[in-house]
Amino acid sequence: MQDYFLILARVQYDYKGKYLFSGVMRRDGSTKFGPSNKFGYFPSASAGWIVSEESFLNESNTFDFLKIRTSYGILGNDRIPDFGFESLLNGEGAYVFDDELLIGTAIGGLSNPEIRWEKQYTFDIGLDAKFFDNKLDVSIDYFNRRTEDLLITPQTSGILGGSGPGSGAPTVNAGSVENTGLELSLSYRKTVSEDFKYNFSFNATALKNEVLEVNGESSFLGGGSFGIGQEAPARMEAGLPIGYFRGYQTDGVFQTQAEVDAHALQSNAQPGDLRFKDTNGDGVITNEDKTYLGDPIADATFGLNFGFTYKNFDFLAYVFSSVGNEIVRNYERFQPLTNRSTIYLDRWTGPGTSNDTPRVTTGATQNNQFSDFFVEDGSFVRLQNVQVGYTLSDTFLEDYKINELRFYVSASNLVTLTKYTGYDPTGSTGQPIGGGIDYGFYPTPKTYLFGLQLKF
Questions:
Q1: Percent of the chain, pLDDT > 70?
Q2: Chain centroid to CA 134: how far?
Q3: Around Cβ 97, how many Cβ atoms within 10 Å?
Q4: What is d(CA 174, CA 112) in angstroms, rounded to the nearest whole number?
Q5: Span 317-327, mean pLDDT?
Q6: Residues 6+ away with beta carbon under 8 Å from 219
């Protein structure tokens, strides 16, 4: 069990209700780290200026409220398994003594005595404004978040013993990652009449992610899995988004043997197979030809809420969208007598039949090697929730001593618009390296609810 220690000092200052300052110093201690790395220091500061309180603006008919704010600080993260800095005898070992199989105790997860606090350096500058008698709220933020000593559990070689029962790879401080972006939030509410009111809110976030540094001797860390015996399809590598996908780029499908002969040497290639690009130009398709194929981090996300009340009726809807991320289709099985995706209905069956989908065969082929054929656009728009309700009038309820009775019906995950051919574009492990790979996750179901709310 984790023990946690905290020492906190805070200073707040308010001058004339329009100049604001706050400063915090934290000293955190966590037993999830070894004795030499147990404590971390995390200062932060923020300042605000309520411009609408200034004499040159408080008579303005444009702004009901205007505030400019900025902050900078360091946050610590210790969300890792307990006792990762030392080895425990919580694994299992199978032994044979006198021709009898016995189950014993072995070292559990691999330890890393050097793990330390993950630190996030966060800078934010933004403004908040209100217009039209406080009916319209607007917030805009620019942020830069640099995470150093990122805590993850990478893939390791099986010879280290991390694949045994009860064991696992060690947690490491993998490197540094930077997130830069913009956030926008709008909300508007209006009372049209005594019977009709409506409101809506909209938020959008644009994000750029980049790995700044990878710790250790290797220039990258791998994660995720694809097929059998293939290298990790996802990587953490400096200069690229964390968890980006690396594999072969394709250039259509071989139509004839002449095309196979004219192309760079590609093992076992036949007409109907995917044609991999020779990105380094050496005339042979090898691992060195693998390249960036996309990443699971969305370029932008959007959310929209809309609701209204009309007399006794109320309505609420929420829409969410993710744009610009890729997802790996990794639930296919390349075995005999297995069902295939409907995309193979348009497969290659002879010269000129398809230049996108390869032939179907159980013979030796590189078509099941990780390539952009398995990487799809994961963008989607989803009607996340819809709810309609009706509240009975007070006069009807007085005889039953009920203050309020409301009937409602709601639906979740009602409609999803996407080009992804899998079951659900949100399927992911959520791992920093290896997220965005669809292993055949059970799709998010549509949910319908009918209910009532009573107040006495």
A1: 95
A2: 34
A3: 8
A4: 12
A5: 97
A6: 237, 238
